[in-house]
Amino acid sequence: MNPDPEGVVMARPRDPQRRTELLDAIIGHLTAHGVAGLSLRPLAQALGRSTSVLTHHFATKDDLIAAVLEHLDQRQRDRLQALPGWEEGRSLGAVVRASWDWHLTGDHLPLIRLLHEIEGLAAAGRLTGAYVPTMLGDRAEFVAEALRAHGVPDDVARANATLLNAAYAGLQLDYLTTGDKARVEAALDRLVDLADEWTRRP
Amino acid sequence: MNPDPEGVVMARPRDPQRRTELLDAIIGHLTAHGVAGLSLRPLAQALGRSTSVLTHHFATKDDLIAAVLEHLDQRQRDRLQALPGWEEGRSLGAVVRASWDWHLTGDHLPLIRLLHEIEGLAAAGRLTGAYVPTMLGDRAEFVAEALRAHGVPDDVARANATLLNAAYAGLQLDYLTTGDKARVEAALDRLVDLADEWTRRP
DNA sequence: ATATTAGCGTAACAGTCGTTGCGCTAATAT
DNA sequence: ATATTAGCGCAACGACTGTTACGCTAATAT
After folding, report:
1. Is the CB of B7 under 7 A from strand C?
2. Closest-CA distance of chain B to residue A129, Å
3. Mean pLDDT by 10 residues, chain B (202 residues)
């Protein structure tokens, strides 16, 4: 039975690792081909498996997408906490710039592109199922915590953290679509300065 | 013949208005159903016509989407210039806030959602054809012009305009996905203050 | 007046879609 | 030892996809 039986006696228990590995492999495929036009047969072929692997672990395609998005969300949450520089020593602006460089260099770009695709679809209300990505809200709360640690009052911290995240995401979008590196990074410089102003203790 | 014959003798000339009306009607449908999962038959049915109307005016589906995106881009450019408040009298911050209220109230929301969906797909490189939306770049240049009109030096104007637009788009995305109006509008207040600081003549 | 094209509906094409049922092996709870 | 389930390949279902061919009317350049 596919939808978790939850209390039924199972002769052979599920191996949760299989599902996790499968999800990671699926995400790998999505970073290259996107979610919008996802098709099960090509996906299965890319995984070197049959489509029944997919329909077995996830009842329906919508369920699969929901599971993938949730898994991706969790992964991003984990990476956020693992970001270097939070534990004092570096200014907030420095963290912003380091994050920018890390995101847009090397092979991280495809994942970033996928995340923007997902957020765009989510904002448009085009994602089936009940899933709503929490990345934006989470990131805002996370940065707000960092601001509070710098002595910024609670409500100001929330507002500035939201603004910082929005600007950061917006600049990424701008760069990804226009490719105008000089213009966007000049704006990033201003944002970094702003972030440092916010954390300059009086 | 569908791809503009360009110089061939045509017994009956094309009526460009038909194409424009068709494009507007298509956009109307897209605001409700999105681009990602666009299908020609449901679209044609929504227009009360046959699919051959679509294949006649646009050779292929990808051509249709490209034409729609270009048309939408042009429409947004026109609206940008028609925005009230540019011709002095109102501060930049006031224009930003007026724009926010105008975008997110009433029946403008579906179009905004569509635009974010498109930008997300564009950033992800998932839009077929050679089309690249110029909305972001255009808006940046437009706001930069406004800043220059306030006496802001050229390079600073470009950087701040890019940052302002990015933050604005990011805040819209945040609100559309999380729905957290209080948090996002508190951040908008900060952005409005920033914009006014930039245009305060020394 | 004639030839040609726009404009559009109808019908069919081959391909792809998500999903389901069947069959099999291997693992494990009882 | 046995029953049951996970895990997965294979094959088929009907629905839907973009696209094409064909036919017809109305408009217009010549």
Report:
1. no
2. 14
3. 48 95 98 98 98 98 97 92 72 94 92 97 88 83 92 96 98 96 98 95 62
Which phi and psi (to 5°) does residue B105 adopt?
-115, 155
Cα(B25)–Cα(A76) distance, rounded to whole angstroms? Answer: 39
Residues of B in contact with A174 (CB under 8 A): 136-137, 140, 162, 165-166
B107 touches B167 (CB < 8 A):
no
As a whole number of angstroms, the distance between CA A97 and CA A76 comes to: 18
According to the model, what pLDDT value does residue A6 have? Answer: 47
Give the one of A36, A162, A171 whose C-beta lies nearest to B126's C-beta: A36
Facing residue for A136 by CB, picked from B113, B136, B178 = B178
Q: Which of A23, A32, A33 minimizes the C-alpha distance to A74? A: A23
Q: Are A38 and A118 in contact (CB under 8 A)?
A: no
Q: Which amino acid is at B28?
A: G
B51 touches strand C (CB under 7 A): yes
Give the DSSP letter of residue A11: S
More confident residue, A70 or B3: A70
A128-166 per-position pLDDT tens digit: 776 777 888 889 999 999 999 999 999 999 999 999 999
Does the CB of B6 sit below 7 A from strand C?
no
> Length of chain B, please?
202
d(CA A42, CA A46) in angstroms, rounded, equals 6
Over residues A170-192, the mean pLDDT reads: 97
Q: Are B159 and A187 in contact (CB under 8 A)?
A: yes
pTM attached to this predicted model: 0.94
The number of helices, as runs of H, and strands, as runs of E, in chain A is: 9, 0
